[in-house]
Amino acid sequence: MGQCVICGKETDELFLSRIEGADIEVCKNCAKLGTIINSSETPVNNNYSNFSNNTNNDFSSSEVVSVLVENYGKLVKSARENKNWKQEDLAKKLAIKESLLHNIESGHFEPTEVIIHKLEKFLHIKLMITMENKKTSIKKFEDENDSPMTLGDMIKKKLKK
């Protein structure tokens, strides 16, 4: 017997379903929210046991990620103008269309990693910064059944704030 990660329902049959890009084990009703990958009598890969047995019932971690700076368009335009290049000149160096460069400079288009690296190389600017992405601490509800928090519980808790 397992528990649906979304609604918390105890059920004999859980479905591995892809919902919003995440593969999670859910009950039959919640499986309809995504694409069913497979079903099983017991959970396919229940990684939640360590979480529910954790003594302080809390989960938090962080990761370092690279992020495009907010004012990337202004930086690109300013650096290009400092070199006295027209948009046409830089677009040729980058092997992209001039209209794409215009959209990047106006902030209407976020460049791909390849274009970002080319822009950094030709203009001698830094468009990517590294940031620590702290994940939210998740704690169990203090309730009568003392079960791990489901996605549904997290949404309810968030709406109460």
What is the count of DSSP helices, taking H or I runs of 4+ residues? 7
Number of strands: 9
Low-pLDDT windows of residues = 41-60
List the secondary-structure elements in sequence, H or E: EEEEHEHEEHHHHEEH
By CATH reckoning, the class of the largest domain would read Mainly Alpha
For the record, give the distance between the C-alpha atoms at the N and C termini, rounded to a whole number. Answer: 33 Å
What is the arithmetic mean of pLDDT?
A: 78
Topology-level CATH name of the largest domain: 434 Repressor (Amino-terminal Domain)
The strand order across the widest sheet is 4-3-5
Q: Work out the radius of gyration.
A: 24 Å
Range of helix content: 25-40%
- Which CATH-level-2 architecture of the largest domain? Orthogonal Bundle
As a percent range, the share of strand residues is 15-25%
The CATH superfamily of the largest domain appears as lambda repressor-like DNA-binding domains
- Net shape: elongated
The description of the largest β-sheet is: 3 strands, antiparallel
Sheet/helix structural class? alpha+beta
Q: How would you describe this protein?
A:
With 161 residues, the chain is of the alpha+beta class. The protein has two domains: 1-45, no CATH class; 65-132, lambda repressor-like DNA-binding domains (434 Repressor (Amino-terminal Domain)). Helix content is 35%, strand content 24%. The chain has seven helices and nine strands; from the N terminus they run ββββαβαββααααββα. The chain has a three-stranded antiparallel β-sheet with strand order 4-3-5. A hairpin with a 2-residue loop joins strand 3 and strand 4 (22-26). Helix 4 crosses helix 5. The longest helix is centred in the middle third of the chain and has 11 residues, at 72-82. The protein is elongated, with a radius of gyration of 24 Å. The protein starts with a strand and ends with a helix. The model is unreliable at 41-60 (pLDDT under 50).
